[in-house]
């Protein structure tokens, strides 16, 4: 059996969230998703001929512990979000997010660094 989802203890997702899981999605303990968060693992080739052939593939998404993801944020395939990170509402996350940072915008950029937390 292949495990596609891993949702940690204390995970919470508000309404209208989408998790497109053609690859694993791992979400750590005590993470919160606001309304309308979308997490995608499906992607396709950039080359037009390959794309037009119908070829698709996936890249896993990993979200660390104690993360907060704001409303209508989009997490793209292959992204890893570090522990204690915060994703602002409406952010489009296309690259990995370091632990203890706040990111926002399209594409998401670091807005602020947060102090490390004690487990």
From TrEMBL:
What CDD domains does the record point to?
LbH_MAT_GAT (cd03357)
Q: Which UniProt keywords apply?
A: Acyltransferase, Repeat, Transferase
A GO cellular component annotation here is:
cytosol
Domain of life according to the entry: Bacteria
Identify the EC number(s).
Answer: 2.3.1.79
One Pfam annotation reads Hexapep_2
Q: Which GO terms describe its molecular function?
A: maltose O-acetyltransferase activity
Question: What protein family does this chain belong to?
Answer: Belongs to the transferase hexapeptide repeat family.
PANTHER family per the record?
ACETYLTRANSFERASE C18B11.09C-RELATED (PTHR23416:SF23), SIALIC ACID SYNTHASE-RELATED (PTHR23416)
Tell me what this protein is called: Maltose O-acetyltransferase
Question: Which species is listed as the source?
Answer: Klebsiella pneumoniae
The encoding gene is maa_1
